[in-house]
C-alpha cells in the first residue's frame, strides 16, 4: 500500500496525469472527426506538456504546489529536461505547420507564467484572462494542431468542437480556482473571488448546459457524441458544485482532471 501511495503521488506530482488528460482530449478529437492523429503528435504533446507543467508548478509557482525536498526537485527537473528533449525529438517528426501551433501555445503559456517585467505581474495575475488563456492553449493543442493537416479548420463542426473545448477546459479550471481562492492574491480577482461561490457554481451549470446543447448544432456528430457530452456536462457541473476551498488535495488534481479520460473511454465504448 505504501508503494502504491508513493507511485500515485509521483504520478500526479510529476504532471503525468494532466498530460494524459490532455492526450485524452486529442484522442476524443480524433474519434469525433474520424481522423487518425499521428503517434508522434501524441508523444510530442505528452513529453512537452510534462516539461511545461513541471516548469510552471515547481519553478514559477512553487509556493502553490507540493513542496519537494531538494533530491525530489532535482529529479523532477532532470525528468522535465529529458521530457523536453523527447518532446522536441517527436515534434521534429511532424510537419513544420504543426511546429507553429506548438510555438503559439508555448508563447501563450510563457506569457501566462512569466512576469512581463521584473517583479511585475504576468497574465496569470488577471483572473478571467488566466482561465481563457489556458482554455485557448488546450484548444489549440487538442483540436487545431492535431487536425491541422487532416481537416479544414474553417469547417463548421470544427468550429463547434473548438467552442465546446474552450467551455470544457473553462469548467475544468473552476474547481482549481475555488481551491485557490485563499492563496490567490486578491488583486487577481479570480472568478470565485470576483463573483463568489454561489454565482460561480450557477455559472458552471449554465456553461455546462451550453456545452451539451452546442452538440446539437453539429452537422455530423460522432456516434455516441450526444450522450458522452451530456454526461461530461453533468460531471463538470457536479465537480464545480462539490468543489470547496478545503477540498481534498487530489479532488481537482486527479478526479476532476480525470474527466477527459472517462469521456474518451465512454466515446470508445459507443464506437464498439
Give an account of the 3D structure:
The protein is mostly helical and 272 residues long. It is built from eleven helices and no strands. Helix 9 (225-241) packs antiparallel against helix 11 (259-271). The chain has one domain (18-38, 94-271). The mean pLDDT is 87. Helix content is 72%, strand content 0%.
Which properties best describe this structure?
272 residues, mainly alpha, 11 helices, 0% strand, globular
Please outline the major beta sheet: none
Q: Radius of gyration, Cα only, in angstroms?
A: 18 Å
- Give the CA-CA distance, first to last residue: 35 Å
What is the 3D shape?
A: globular
| Topology as a string of helices (H) and strands (E) | HHHHHHHHHHH
The chain-level structural class is mainly alpha
Specify the oligomeric state.
single chain
Can you tell me the residue ranges where pLDDT is under 50 for at least 5 consecutive residues?
none
Percent helix, as a range, is over 70%
Summarize the structure.
This protein is 72% helix and 0% strand. It is built from 11 helices and no strands.
Helix/strand layout:
Layout: H1 2-13, H2 16-32, H3 39-60, H4 70-91, H5 96-113, H6 127-147, H7 156-179, H8 191-214, H9 225-241, H10 251-256, H11 259-271
Helix pairs in contact: 2-3, 2-6, 2-11, 3-4, 5-6, 6-7, 7-8, 7-9, 8-9, 9-11
Amino acid at each position: 500500500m505504501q508503494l502504491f501511495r508513493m507511485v500515485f503521488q509521483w504520478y500526479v506530482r510529476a504532471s503525468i496525469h494532466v498530460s494524459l488528460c490532455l492526450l485524452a482530449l486529442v484522442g476524443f478529437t480524433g474519434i469525433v472527426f474520424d481522423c487518425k492523429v499521428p503517434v508522434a503528435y501524441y508523444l510530442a504533446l505528452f513529453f512537452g506538456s510534462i516539461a511545461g507543467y513541471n516548469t510552471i508548478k515547481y519553478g514559477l509557482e512553487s509556493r502553490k504546489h507540493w513542496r519537494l525536498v531538494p533530491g525530489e526537485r532535482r529529479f523532477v527537473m532532470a525528468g522535465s529536461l529529458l521530457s523536453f528533449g523527447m518532446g522536441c525529438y517527436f515534434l521534429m517528426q511532424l510537419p513544420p505547420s504543426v511546429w507553429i501551433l506548438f510555438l503559439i501555445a508555448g508563447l501563450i503559456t510563457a506569457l501566462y507564467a512569466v512576469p512581463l517585467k521584473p517583479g511585475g505581474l504576468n497574465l496569470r495575475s488577471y483572473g478571467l484572462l488566466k482561465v481563457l488563456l489556458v482554455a485557448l492553449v488546450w484548444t489549440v493543442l487538442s483540436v487545431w494542431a492535431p487536425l491541422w493537416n487532416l481537416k479544414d479548420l474553417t469547417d463548421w463542426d470544427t468550429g463547434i468542437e473548438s467552442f465546446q473545448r474552450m467551455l470544457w477546459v473553462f469548467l475544468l479550471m473552476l474547481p482549481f480556482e475555488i481551491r485557490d481562492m485563499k492563496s490567490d492574491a486578491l488583486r487577481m480577482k479570480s472568478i470565485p473571488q470576483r463573483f463568489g461561490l454561489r454565482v460561480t457554481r450557477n455559472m458552471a451549470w449554465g456553461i455546462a448546459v451550453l456545452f451539451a446543447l452546442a452538440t446539437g448544432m453539429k452537422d455530423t456528430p460522432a456516434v455516441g457524441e450526444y450522450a458522452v457530452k451530456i454526461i461530461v456536462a453533468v460531471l463538470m457541473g457536479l465537480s464545480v458544485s462539490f468543489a470547496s476551498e478545503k477540498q481534498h488535495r487530489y479532488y481537482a488534481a486527479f478526479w476532476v482532471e480525470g474527466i477527459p479520460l472517462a469521456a474518451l473511454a465512454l466515446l470508445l465504448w459507443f464506437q464498439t
